[in-house]
Design goal:
homodimer, 157 residues, Arc Repressor Mutant, subunit A, 18% strand, DNA-binding
Amino acid sequence: MRWQDIDQQPCSLARTLAIIGDNWTLLVLRDCFMGVRRFDDFQQRLGVTRHVLSDRLRKLTEGGVLDKVAYQERPLRHEYRLTAMGKELYPVIVHLAQWGDKHLAGEHGAPLIRYHRQCGEPLEAQLQCSHCGDTVKPTDIRVEENPYWAGQILVNS
Amino acid sequence: MRWQDIDQQPCSLARTLAIIGDNWTLLVLRDCFMGVRRFDDFQQRLGVTRHVLSDRLRKLTEGGVLDKVAYQERPLRHEYRLTAMGKELYPVIVHLAQWGDKHLAGEHGAPLIRYHRQCGEPLEAQLQCSHCGDTVKPTDIRVEENPYWAGQILVNS
DNA sequence: ATAGTTGGTTCCCATTTGGAACTTATAGTC
DNA sequence: GACTATAAGTTCCAAATGGGAACCAACTAT
């Protein structure tokens, strides 16, 4: 199977990765959450080649994660902004960064610290069930198949 | 900059993606959390080519996310298990899948439903600050630079 | 008239991927 | 003893993708 066909999988994670799972794309999103909006700013910060950046921004826009809006006419110039849908990827970015902070930081510590404004403390993100408010561990989850795709997703349980 | 040099960046997210940010790798991890451990099982479920799978499993093992352990001698056979460090990526997987469930599911709905055993309800994961217990939105976060890398990460604020 | 800015596209070459066949070591069956 | 199956890869080739650099278009500023 080719990577470009994974958006045809029923799995929600596969479909998500069809939009944001490419090399460089999650780093583009990191910069979006840092307030970067313009092509050349992305390009300089990431060091990615221009045609790859162009392709990734197009895929994110087509996928509904970014919105390409004109910020001036004459000459026409566009910038890329997170949509509401895109902003919902924030937990993914935070957990990825936090995992790196914890396991991959060198002797100088994490390069960025995220403070929770409301309590003033460095953010320690956890997986929380919004229904009961409890913190969730992998073993706390029971997975059930949607009968429509019975047998196509789960191999074991 | 080449993608393979991304692990030299100070950014924790970039370092994380150097291990798990490749195409296919997050799908390998999805299967790990579903209990898949063996090479041929990964290969058949993902449809990825065998040498790419071999490469990704090696990178995950070198990165400390998976552990390659022999499950039999004669003939020697190995399987891949999540390490404690690997299991901490569970929130990333859950949030990615949940985002796909919400925004990319077709008419038949999400293919898998995750139930929280403790409360019995379908899991709705949220970003939570473990210090104060509040739910966290992107605007609730204030980012500060570690002075050691001053100016190298943040462009604006 | 010339240089600079912004947001790309085009070109070439090297690396990576997809697909399939092959390998190694062993167990089980005819 | 010969054949087949299993598991976990490795090797091969053609096609697709990526890195690096140059180029282009439509302006603005000096």
